[in-house]
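Exercise 7 asks you to align residues with tokens for two separate proteins.
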Amino acid sequence: MMDLIIQGLILIGLLLSAGMIWYFRDLLSAAISFGVFSFLLSLEFLILQAPDVAIAEAAIGAGLTTAIFILAIRATEKDPEADAE
């Protein structure tokens, strides 16, 4: 029963973080939301007794991919005309 409650909370977190990825116009905020989404997904894999997939998702999805997104966003120049919209 406790597993169902935890899975429900993770599902709500996944839906909220996916909505935040779609909602945010700031790329850095969207990248961080993607990292949260990926971390919650790795927790779900762990609950579903797939620890190897959970570790891979946490390391690659939540860790490495998010870091690459953030580095790429920081390396780009901000368009001043985009702020006027």
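Second protein for Exercise 7:
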Amino acid sequence: MNDPLKKYRKQFRIWKNDLRLKRERRYYDNAFASRNLTIPDEERIKREMRKRFPYIRPKAKGTLSILAIYHNYNWENESLKPSLEKFGYVRHYDWCEQFNHAKKNWHKTLRPEMNSFLIKQVEDWTKQDATDVIFTYLSGELVSPETVRELKSFGIPMVNLALNDKEHFVGRIRSGHSMGARDICRYFDICWTSTEAAVRKYCVEGAIPIYLPEGANPEIHRPYDTEKTIDVSFVGQCYGNRPEIIRRLESHGIHVEARGFGWPNGPLATEDMVRIYSRSRINLGFGGVIGFSKAYCLKGRDFEIPMSGGLYLTEYHPELERFYNPGSEIVTYKDFDDMVEKIRFLLSNPEKADEIRKRGYERARREHSWEMRFEKIFHLLGLI
């Protein structure tokens, strides 16, 4: 009796989220057009950075002093930190190391304390050593606009990474403040977003955006010489429509080895996760954003699986075409029936599947590492 009610509540939440996102998009598109704004290209960004930091002189790669501010949720220290270290010495600040006693809702009680401590810590470190750049992975849920403005006052180039701007550029509003990037983005020198649709929003809010997706770390995401014992696998959290789709695949005679938080077999350690990419004939992906009907975004696995040498079959959305040739380097599906058809074709044509897998691997290694992303950012800042 509760199932239909639960279903309707879910549908209502999705309707509300879709409506909010549609209104948000319309507001920013209209503001962008009415103010005659333009999206800055790389040359314009470089000119602006020279104006802001006329005293910066490029250094050799490997000699920068970098302050990195982010929390290691589960992937950051294996992807961001070693990639940053290719450019020099990295001093990492993780607030959970200072506030490890914090409870789940720490932002409601310890946020002001964390923000004050962050400012003091950065001030102390920048006095001890000359810092070339501050890299952050922060949102309005974590830091206040006043905190970011205070960090900006140190006169060090700052770049912020945001990976959830599709649904969280504004996000929830608490006491009039955005929990996304909206209220803090203007204080960064470069705002790195993995969401193409958010670029205009940054411009409207007075920020300088650059659209770059996630990447992968080739020292971790690499092929393993192992037998392919799994037809189809999926590694990721169990939420949204994923359980239903995998159940439907099972009903069509396609078994999916699902691993991650929420699945019966649970999550995997990083090395085991990468090994399963090599053990699988097909690695499944989903491109949808939870809580929305037709919102898609790039995922970390879009780059980690091909770089790990896995054959990648994922949900189609236009942004993928900017970074891969679908059908040649990865495979995409448009609906459930198309997914089933593609799985059966790939399993029945291992030579064709292997050709696609190899080309995807080569493309990812050639263009899609985190190190390459940082190289572009630091070049735009004039640091290297």
